[in-house]
């Protein structure tokens, strides 16, 4: 295990500047709206901000304020933040991001979770935080071999916590992190005191009979309707990344504008409300810092490879029995009965605001739910 500090060579930043200065954008399609992808007019303005105002060195400095390390587990380099609370009785907690996210997602949670008293909370709710980059993502990339399923990542996180000397800990995550976190508990149920996820542990079935659909609540029926719409209107990126991640990777790794557009498309679709531009919901500097981690490490294709091609879609794992809490934000489509089949759901909270990127969109609400869930499990 080695201390790690982000130190991007100036030559990389100069290369990025050159590419942004000499960008080539496509002509706008009829209407230039989000139905066909990121509008040229909107992206052009964001690219100009990236080119002339965004400060990577400031973002790098902010990230380096937190202790970071790398280690090798199961033949893979793993990068992680390790932020200990001043409270010696704090509960260790693993935070796992998703795609197209990164450890940047959790920056607004670090202070409130490690030092709750300084952020209007109870000191007894303090956590020691371990925030890894998923294998293949950013400074944990690229991957050197196949087989990085969510179960394997779960076992890797359990090994990481063992290396750090933590015997009792919790896990939390959303998106890929929401499916990896229960796998940590399945791998080490004697060590994981609780699993907390935003967005659910798994998706509901893609199709339901009319009879079963009629048994759902109006909220659950709405979620099923949005799953159907997703499969019809948005599934294209999964089809590409799960079958030809290297093909799309060439364009994303070679073009910063292409990488930006690919990720911004998801931030617009998955933030809430959908009709609001993503940089009106999440600070544009934070959006760009997240994109920068993909760009500077050249991990677009390896992140896609791990995130989709190597995830066991449809497989139903065993129930670990570990207490599991779910917070479902307005954008989310999880349904309790379909999560309970293989998870010990002890807390379920539906809220009427917030989107897929909970830690970025609703950090206070997410922090409160994490604190309340783990309060009885310490």
Structure overview:
This protein has 378 residues and is of the alpha/beta class. Helices cover 45% and strands 15% of the residues. It contains 17 helices and 9 strands. The protein has a 9-stranded mixed sheet, with helices on both faces. Helix 4 packs parallel to helix 17 and helix 10 packs antiparallel against helix 14. The two termini are 27 Å apart. The model has no long low-confidence stretch (mean pLDDT 95).
Radius of gyration: 20 Å
How many β-strands, per DSSP?
Answer: 9
Strand order of the largest sheet: 1-2-3-5-4-6-7-8-9
Instruction: Write the H/E string, N to C.
Output: EHHHEEEHEHEHEHHHHHHHHEHEHH
Specify the overall morphology: globular
Mean pLDDT: 95
Q: Topology, please?
A:
Blueprint: E1 2-4, H1 10-21, H2 40-52, H3 56-63, E2 68-73, E3 76-83, E4 91-96, H4 107-114, E5 127-132, H5 150-163, E6 169-174, H6 176-187, E7 192-198, H7 210-214, H8 218-233, H9 236-243, H10 245-254, H11 256-270, H12 278-281, H13 284-297, H14 300-309, E8 323-328, H15 336-339, E9 344-350, H16 358-361, H17 363-374
Parallel strand pairs: 4-5, 4-6, 6-7, 7-8, 8-9
Antiparallel strand pairs: 1-2, 2-3, 3-5
Tags for this model:
alpha/beta; globular; 15% strand; 378 residues; 9 strands; nine-stranded mixed β-sheet
Brief overview, please?
This protein is of the alpha/beta class and 378 residues long.
